[in-house]
Amino acid sequence: MANTNLDDVPSLDLMTELLRRFKCSSKPDKRLILIGPPGSGKGTQSPIIKDEYCLCHLATGDMLRAAVAAKTPLGVKAKEAMNKGELVSDDLVVGIIDEAMKKPSCQKGFILDGFPRTVVQAQKLDEMLQNQGVKVDKVLNFAIDDAILEERITGRWIHPSSGRTYHTKFAPPKVLGVDDVTGEPLIQRKDDTAAVLKLRLEAFHKQTEPVIDYYSKKGLVANLHAEKPPKEVTVEVEKVLS
């Protein structure tokens, strides 16, 4: 980012940012990992936690794409692997997290989302953090029954051109299968079908349960009742982190 001349920044924006930094300076550092299957509500809670505790949000998929786009040394390596159709190595991903953590926005800590997915990744992450003299503070486990997820996810229908979303149970359209505004047909995303969800959940349980065990042994896991309405989950998160 080019250095902006502060004279050109509106006073209100400057004041808002100063107040935010002042508020943040008194917050304790927090390094959090969010674990949960698709549809468990991590995406709803992470921006709330991020703002409340002044953390940066490290979504490994986005970070990899950003590193590739910015052609950082690690990004170049990651692109080579992807071009060959290989998985990006754990060391590379940890390296990219390591790089990202040095940004000013991460000085109060971070929320890691989508990583670690395996115990080996968790160990490598621990090693890297240890080298920086910090450690993971809490692992928030968005625990939820597969059957509830299936209802949540397979009930989602979308009006493709506007992005309006409906849910057969929680927010149904006035006429089944039809957009309220245009009367055009609704579609279901490929990922939102029961068959795809079943595969994603199987992979999630197989890969991630050992990660939860790994952090449980360290006494870091907080199990959230992710089936509750979002506001109640937020209250649970605040209790766990206070």
UniProtKB/TrEMBL annotation:
It comes from the Eukaryota. It catalyses: AMP + ATP = 2 ADP. Transmembrane segments: none annotated. PROSITE patterns: ADENYLATE_KINASE. Residues 156-191 form the Adenylate kinase active site lid domain. It holds the Pfam family ADK. GO terms for cellular component: cytoplasm; mitochondrion. InterPro entries: Adenyl_kin_sub, Adenylat/UMP-CMP_kin, Adenylat_kinase_CS, Adenylate_kinase_lid-dom, P-loop_NTPase. Keywords: Kinase, Nucleotide-binding, Transferase. Its EC number is 2.7.4.3. GO terms for molecular function: AMP kinase activity; ATP binding. The keyword Nucleotide-binding applies. It is an enzyme of class 2 (transferase). Catalyzes the reversible transfer of the terminal phosphate group between ATP and AMP. Plays an important role in cellular energy homeostasis and in adenine nucleotide metabolism. Belongs to the adenylate kinase family. Monomer. This is adenylate kinase. The gene is LOC100814972.
